[in-house]
TrEMBL record:
Name of the protein this chain belongs to: CBU-0592-like domain-containing protein
Residue stretches making up the CBU-0592-like domain: 7-81
Alphabetical list of NCBIfam families matching this protein: CBU_0592_membra
Alphabetized UniProt keyword annotations: Membrane, Transmembrane, Transmembrane helix
Protein's UniProt keywords contain DNA damage: no
Length: 91
């Protein structure tokens, strides 16, 4: 019988977030440059990484670590765009 631990559930929630973000992107509910898309991906990957601390797999860890880094790039780009558009409105 399969025994799930709480950290496995955290990892499954992370997978659900990543898959939900991709599905919402594919059905044009989210844009790839939206904050929600990057947050779902980054938080989801972070949850998977957390679960890997209990049952480590190097290839999965590397994949998710880069997923977090790429998501952070998306978040920074979003914030930068919003700040620049705010500055342009004030001129």
């Amino acid at each position: 019988m399969l025994m799930l631990h709480w950290h496995d559930i955290v990892g499954f929630c992370g997978i659900a977030m990543i898959l939900a973000a991709y599905l919402l992107l594919q059905i044009d509910f989210l844009r790839s440059d939206s904050l929600v898309y990057s947050l779902l991906n980054g938080l989801g990957a972070s949850c998977v990484i957390f679960s890997l601390f209990f049952d480590f797999n190097l290839s999965a860890f590397l994949m998710e670590a880069f997923w977090v880094i790429i998501s952070l790039i998306g978040i920074v780009r979003y914030v930068t765009r919003k700040r620049q558009s705010g500055l342009e409105l004030r001129k």
